[in-house]
Amino acid sequence: MIVYLHSEFRAVALRDGRETKERISRAALTLFVQKGFAETSIRDITSAVGITEGALYRHFPGKDQLAWDLFSTNYISFATELTRVRIGKSGFSEQVAAMVEAFCRLFDQDPELFSYLLLVQHNESGKLPDTIKTPVDAVRDCVIDGMENGDIPKADPEVLTASLLGVVLQVATARIYGRIEKGLSEMKDDLTAICLRVAQA
């Protein structure tokens, strides 16, 4: 019975630890987007969460590691989802439609997270090992497969990948800044159609 209680208390402690880490991550994410990374202090984050600085350091060695964890974990997860939704889809058009739908859905679920990823990707993405798949890699793979299968004309895959990403990312950026009121999921069919026209150009 003592072992059982010990295990139960340990499970609660582990759960509470995960919850605290998640609260730290969310507070930091919000502050990084609202104030900027450089302008956000550890004290800002701990005040937002309602914990001591020592409690934060039990989960993260510092602000840089916290920012990196936020970026790398979510950026890689995004790439994994874009790759996953292609599975079982027949041809370039269906795969692009699935990837655009996934992007729009994930953006609408957490615009703040996407704001952060867009904000820091230029500085942080270069730190990822070459073996790690990124969202850019996921789109490039789709483009290359489409060319090899004859679904779209041969072109520079890097240029086409950048062009397709630009279609969706520029709309997402406009949504973040309030220039577009619709959710991205409401525009997924239009965005897919534009991407397909770009690929066929």
Automatic annotation (TrEMBL):
Entry-linked InterPro entries: DNA-bd_HTH_TetR-type_CS (IPR023772), Homeodomain-like_sf (IPR009057), HTH-type_TetR-like_transc_reg (IPR050109), HTH_TetR (IPR001647), Tet_transcr_reg_TetR-rel_C_sf (IPR036271)
Keyword annotations from UniProtKB, A to Z: DNA-binding, Transcription, Transcription regulation
Domain annotation HTH tetR-type: ranges: 18-78
DNA-binding region: 41-60
One MF annotation (Gene Ontology) recorded for this entry: DNA-binding transcription factor activity
Domain of life: Bacteria
Protein name: TetR/AcrR family transcriptional regulator
